[in-house]
Automatic annotation (TrEMBL):
<feature type="domain" description="TTF-type">
    <location>
        <begin position="38"/>
        <end position="120"/>
    </location>
</feature>
<dbReference type="Pfam" id="PF25431">
    <property type="entry name" value="zf-C17orf113"/>
</dbReference>
<dbReference type="InterPro" id="IPR006580">
    <property type="entry name" value="Znf_TTF"/>
</dbReference>
<dbReference type="InterPro" id="IPR057456">
    <property type="entry name" value="Znf_C17orf113"/>
</dbReference>
<protein>
    <recommendedName>
        <fullName>TTF-type domain-containing protein</fullName>
    </recommendedName>
</protein>
<feature type="region of interest" description="Disordered">
    <location>
        <begin position="1"/>
        <end position="32"/>
    </location>
</feature>
Amino acid sequence: MASLLRWSDSARPGKAPKRLSRTSDQVTEAKKKYEDKRVREFKTHWMDGRPWLKYDNENSVMYCTYCKEQGKGGKFVSGCTNFRIDTIQNHEVSSPHISATSVAERPLPQNSLAAKAINSIKQTEYDRLSILFRNAHAVAKHHLTFKTYNVICKLDQAKGLDVGNSYLNDKKACEFVKNIASVSRNETRDLLKKTPFLSLTCDGSSDFMGG
C-alpha cells in the first residue's frame, strides 16, 4: 500500500509548483481586468510641491488651477478622474502647463521693487496734497484771503509737516478751492437726482460780515 503513495509534482517539498506560462496578450488582458476593477483615489500628498494641483471633493476630480486660469484645454481643466501619479507627472511636463506656469508664477507688477517705489512716491504726494487741500478749504470756509493760504502752509512746515515745495501760492489755493467746489456740486447734484421729493426753505440771513 505504501508503495502506491507518491508525491505529486505540485506538492513535492522544496519544489515550487509549475505555473502555466501566459502569452503577452493574456498578461495585458489580466492587467486590464485588474485596472478595471481597481478603485483609485486621489492622494493628498500629490499636492505637496504642486500649488497648481487641486482636488474637487464634490465632483471627485482633480484639476490644474494654472491651466484653468490661463484658459488652457485638456482634462486637467475640465476635471481629471485618472488618479495616477504618472498622469499628474505627464501633465506637469506638458507644454501647455509649462506655459501657464510661467505666467501664473510671474511676479505681480505691484509686488516688484519698482512698483513699490512708485507707490511710495504716490503716497507721499497724496499726503502732501491732502494737507494743502485742507488748508485751502479752511481759507474758503472762513472767508479768508487766498494770501493767508501761504501763511498756513509755512506754519505747517514749522510744525514739521511735509507739505513739499510746490503748490504753496495763492493761485494754487484758488485752484484747489475750485476743485473742492466742483466735487461738492457733483455730489449734491447726484444726491438730488436720487431724491424723489425736494423742499426748499428760504429766509433772510446776514452775510459773513454780519451785515
